[in-house]
Amino acid sequence: MLDIKELHAKVEDKEILKGLNLNIKAGEVHAIMGPNGSGKSTLANVLAGRNGYEVTKGSIEYDGKDLLELEPEERAWAGVFLAFQYPVEIPGVNNVYLLKAAVNAIRKNRGEQELDAVEFLALVKEKMKLVKMKEDLLNRAVNEGFSGGEKKRNEIFQMAVLEPKLAILDETDSGLDIDALKIVSEGVNSLRSPERSIILVTHYQRLLDYIKPDHVHVLSNGKIIKSGGPELALELEEKGYDWIVETEAA
Amino acid sequence: MSTNSEKMEDLVGKDYEHGFVTDIDSDTVAPGLNEEVITFISKKKEEPEWLLEWRLKAYRHWLTMEDPTWAHLDIEHIDYQAISYYSAPKKKEDGPQSLDEVDPKLLETYEKLGIPLQEQKFLAGVAVDAVFDSVSVATTFKGKLADAGVIFCSFSEAVKDHPELVKKYLGSVVPAADNFFAALNSAVFTDGSFVYIPKGVRCPMELSTYFRINASNTGQFERTLIVADEASHVSYLEGCTAPMRDENQLHAAVVELVALEDAEIKYSTVQNWYPGDENGVGGIYNFVTKRADCRGDNSKVSWTQVETGSAITWKYPSCILKGDNSVGEFYSVAVTNNYQQADTGTKMIHLGKNTRSTIISKGISAKKAQQSYRGLVKVSKSADNARNYTQCDSLLMGDQCGAHTFPYIEAKNSSAKVEHEATTSKIGDDQLFYCLQRGIKEEDAVNMIVNGFCKEVFKELPMEFAVEAQKLLGITLEGAVG
Ligand SMILES: Nc1ncnc2c1ncn2[C@@H]1O[C@H](COP(=O)(O)OP(=O)(O)OP(=O)(O)O)[C@@H](O)[C@H]1O
Ligand SMILES: [Mg+2]
Fold it and tell me: Across the A/B interface, how many CB contacts are shorter than 8 Å?
């Protein structure tokens, strides 16, 4: 489903990713943990095709395609979804309007029938329940004045509506209160399916209590330096990162 | 993928959709301006002696005035003697009595512009008074308006049929000697619209005028006068487009609004004149004097404008808040692209007690365009408890364009409350990326973000105009949308 090989990427002439390898199969959930500034969001942005993130070496194969050849919107059409660490505010643009534009842009480019207002509304209603999304957030401008947690929940709500094949959740758990974390996790779990792969970027093992990952990776200084099962996260929680980073250096 | 700003600049380039010239013989006077030409215009229009005198007085005053100098506008000298001051489409017999008699070519032109002059418009509740060059060629639905006692006609007709109203109000808001272009307009204006809403009447439909400049090298000088008598209400829409030209064409209109006690006037403009090509060649010079006089207590005037056209725009729709508790509003979206320049804003002059004004200005600049907001809020000694709120937001697309904000505040009454907020933002790469990541194409994303930025103004426009305005914004900024 996703095969990243020897990935090097730089931002503003600074090399951030330095030979990253990662292989994700359909249906798997991978957690990526790692110290601040290690390159987790950079990886997420490279996968989504953000401008200014330059891949200098390596390859990314997604769903049999060369992902790096695709424009950001083409990646979205192909099922790549990024839940942003810091969702941006877009004043004056209605949240649900943007979502409808997104749904129909994706459908259109896949050669599917666009949804009319009634069908779209039915879809929205269904998905709202899934993440207990408050209705008034739908009718406000995109993320404008949303609390930190509301922004994160909105990302997951969008994910639920867009039903991606590869979802990258960049610290979606940060800023969520305990109840919200539960609800959002349940939402994510309900979206787990044999066709859908999920990358969870997180700092907290707590999230992984709710969403059981198949694999856990530690990203440090632009490389995956350790991989393991869910138990790795528990170990990290206990010992921090120093021990691996030191072991590696030794 | 190229950088976002480069891509955005590609999208910004879209040929002017309304650039074509209708082939009609025009009855055009030789270029040049003198008392003879003015007399010719006045005679041609069979005007009374007092109006000719008024024009000549304005002309003589104009001769003593200097060309204005431009703070933030880069403008070539205009040769006023090279302009022809009168041009009328040829008519069969005495002129059209109904649409059937209107030159089909004209109608075709309007059709191409998407101006629904015919029945659809009536069904939509809009009466159209179309100005083609300098003479009104078609006026519809006068009957329904007449039943309500509303007078809505070309300025020339008003001079003939309602001379007492014209004489009473003409120049009472914008005096002939007000400024260089107002004086020029007063001397040579050829036509425009006249509206009178009698006491207590709510105008039964939105009034709409489409202006169009066609004959080559012809300056157009419209004169619009709207009088809302006590406790009356009217919403007036003005829309403009012009065919493609190489020479710069001068356009210097004067619009006067008078709101008496408890009256309300809503004046909405969508201005889409030819802006010149992507190299800055051609385009309309748009120097307009628009002013409203809130003469009566509790009167209200609201200006809403969407300015996407013209090579150079110089325009400050203003309100004189004379009556106690009177309200002035100004909502503006101005878009400049390529080499377009705009210097626009408003003046709110608070004279009466408890007068309130609101200014919301949204400026969007792309490519090499320059834009200035210039606003004056003046609170006189007599204006106790005057309030003003001003919000000025600029959005830049690319890094070669500019936005400048000049708020002037003169408060001579200590009870005045004047608030000003200003922001300048670049269309955010992060906003754009957010939309792209959700599968929305770049041009649709830009369109969405820009429309969101303008929302506060668009919601002030009458529904069908708002749709048109959004479309126009898309065309101006985005290239091949849809
Ligand atoms: N636009 C940029 N310009 C310069 N440096 C950048 C830019 N974006 C990221 N970086 C740098 O790249 C490094 C990796 O950043 P990244 O955001 O990927 O870290 P992260 O692992 O997501 O950290 P966190 O856990 O704090 O979210 C950091 O040192 C950061 O400062
Ligand atoms: Mg991060």
Answer: 85
pLDDT band of B396, cuts 50, 70, 90: confident
Check pLDDT > 70 for residue B111.
Answer: no
Q: Whose CA is nearest to atom 29 of ligand 1?
A: A37
pLDDT digits (tens, 9 = 90+) for B179-234: 999 999 999 998 888 999 999 999 988 887 655 454 444 457 889 999 999 999 99
Note whether B437 contacts A81, CB cutoff 8 Å.
yes
Model confidence at A199: pLDDT above 90: yes
How far away, in angstroms, is A43 Cα from ligand 1 center?
10
Pocket flag, ligand 1, residue A141 (CB < 6 Å): no
In this prediction, residue B118 has a pLDDT band, given cuts at 50, 70 and 90, of very low
| B326/B246 Cα distance (integer angstroms) | 44
SS3 B459: coil
Nearest residue in chain A measured CA to CA from B5: A51
Measured torsion, CA atoms of residues B269, B273, B278, B279, in degrees rounded to the nearest 10: -120
ipTM above threshold 0.90: yes
CB B333 within 8 A of CB B458: yes
Q: Say if residue A90 is exposed, middle or buried (CB neighbours under 10 Å; 0-12, 13-18, 19+).
A: buried
Task: Give the minimum alpha-carbon distance from A73 to chain B in angstroms, rounded to a whole number.
Answer: 4
Burial B303-336 (b: 16+ CB within 10 A, else e): bbbbbbbbbbbbbbbbbbbbbbbbbbbbbbbbbb
- CA-to-CA dists, residue B68 to B62, B76, B177, angstroms: 12, 12, 14
Looking at beta carbons, which residues of chain B come within 8 Å of A142?
A: 434
Q: Which residues of B171-195 are buried (b: 16+ CB within 10 A; e: fewer)?
A: bebbebbbbbbbbbbbbbbbbbbbb
Q: Is pLDDT above 90 for B127?
A: no
pLDDT, one tens digit per residue, over A148-166 is 889 999 999 999 999 999 9
Number of the ligand 1 atom closest to the C-alpha atom of A219: 21
Ligand 1 neighbour A12 (Cβ under 6 A)? yes
Q: What is the pTM of this model?
A: 0.77
- Which of the two residues, A75 and B209, has the higher pLDDT score? A75
Give me the pLDDT at residue B214, please: 46
Q: And the tokens for B87?
A: 């041009």
Distance from the Cα of B401 to chain A's closest Cα (Å) equals 22
Rounded to whole angstroms, the Cα distance separating B465 from B254 reads 22
Nearest protein Cα to ligand 1, atom 26: A36
In SS3 terms, A75-90 reads as HHHCCEEEECCCCCCE
**Residues of A in Cβ contact (< 8 Å) with B1:** 49, 51, 71-72
pLDDT for the residue numbered B89: 55
Q: What is the pLDDT of residue B131?
A: 53
Give the gyration radius of chain B's Cα atoms.
22
